[in-house]
Specification:
Structural class: alpha/beta
Strand order of the largest sheet: 4-3-2-5-6-9-7
Number of domains: 2
Largest sheet: 7 strands, mixed
CATH architecture of the largest domain: 3-Layer(aba) Sandwich
Helix content: 25-40%
Bound molecules: S-adenosylmethionine
Shape: elongated
CATH topology of the largest domain: Rossmann fold
Distance between the termini: 63 Å
Order of helices and strands: HEHEHEHEHEHEHHEEEHHHH
CATH class of the largest domain: Alpha Beta
Strand content: 15-25%
CATH superfamily of the largest domain: Vaccinia Virus protein VP39
């Protein structure tokens, strides 16, 4: 069954009475070249893979052909009977009807006796950043995340300090991973077609002992959030608002680290955010 073929999709919709839900971000791939390309780039051969949002299963199928075991997590219960039909041939697949944000990925690895997991998905766009951060913050042994996201978000995730796309999401993702833009996918490759183009990115997770050392992760992420809270303001202004401190104190912190007091958050990278966070902690401690 060619799961990216529009007439196959239409007849499955009719057979199961399935209706596309905008609120669940249901834009299915109808370009046959894309699912194998994503699966190849995810390098899932012989691995344990978790897929988020299988839909009718076009990407799941490509993952099952390559991976040792695939767990596909789908929130929409009306898709489960469809998946049971479209993916019936695969003995290495488990379909879980759940919200990915409620799934304990570590427990899933343990259940399957796996030390690590690779994530692959055409993500629902209404919830992309929370899903990515859930995966990275969970502490689960995630090795890589290869996902389709909106093109604009892809640009933000792979950008670097100083660029107009650089922001809190860039810095947060860069703390956990080395991100890479793989390829763009036009809106016409989906049904129904979304309003915007998409891109596939790959995030290779940095082992915990190789990440930028921070004394306290919470303070570090608070510095990042504060730094970009008001883009046009200087870092001194943003830190002062975010940490409820006098501007003179924020300026002293930057000066003591040889960071210009006139700097904006977008000019700094995670090493500097970590130094600032450690200094703020010392001041409090
Ligand atoms: N993988 C299919 C494809 O590429 O054609 C469908 C991708 S579609 C963009 C996103 C899928 O994620 C839908 O099947 C949707 O029901 C599912 N989904 C939405 N929110 C979810 C959540 N919180 N947890 C798990 N799946 C979710």
């Amino acid at each position: 069954m060619e799961l990216t073929n529009l007439s196959v999709i239409r007849s499955l919709c009719e057979k199961y009475g399935f209706e596309f839900s905008k609120t669940l971000g249901q834009n299915f791939l109808v370009n046959a070249a894309i699912p194998p390309k994503i699966a190849e780039e995810a390098e899932t051969d012989g691995k344990f893979v978790v897929e988020i949002g299988p839909g009718f299963g076009c990407l799941t199928k490509e993952l099952c052909k390559r991976a040792k075991k695939v767990v596909a997590v789908e929130i929409d219960s009306s898709l489960i009977p469809v998946l049971n039909e479209t993916l019936a041939e695969f003995g290495n697949l488990e379909i879980v009807n759940d919200d990915i944000l409620s799934v304990d990925i570590s427990a899933l690895c343990e259940k399957h006796g796996e030390k690590s997991v690779d994530i692959c998905a055409n993500l629902p766009y209404y919830i992309t950043t929370p899903i990515v951060m859930h995966l990275l913050e969970s502490g689960a042994p995630v090795k890589s995340v290869t996902v389709m996201v909106q093109k604009e978000l892809a640009r933000r995730i792979v950008s670097t300090p100083g660029s107009s796309d650089y922001g809190a999401v860039t810095a947060s993702v860069a703390y956990y991973t080395n991100p890479k833009h793989l390829f763009n996918v036009s809106a016409g490759s989906f049904y129904p077609a979304p309003k915007v183009d998409s891109a596939v990115i790959r995030l290779d997770v940095i082992p915990e002992n190789e990440r930028i050392p921070v004394k306290d992760k919470e303070t570090f992420f608070k510095v990042i959030r504060s730094a970009f809270a008001m883009r046009r303001k200087t870092l001194v202004n943003n830190l002062s608002a975010g940490f409820n401190m006098e501007k003179t104190e924020a300026a002293e912190i930057l000066s003591s680290l040889s960071i210009p007091v006139s700097v904006r958050g977008e000019a700094l990278g995670n090493k500097d955010f970590a130094r600032i966070a450690d200094k703020i902690l010392m001041r409090n401690g």
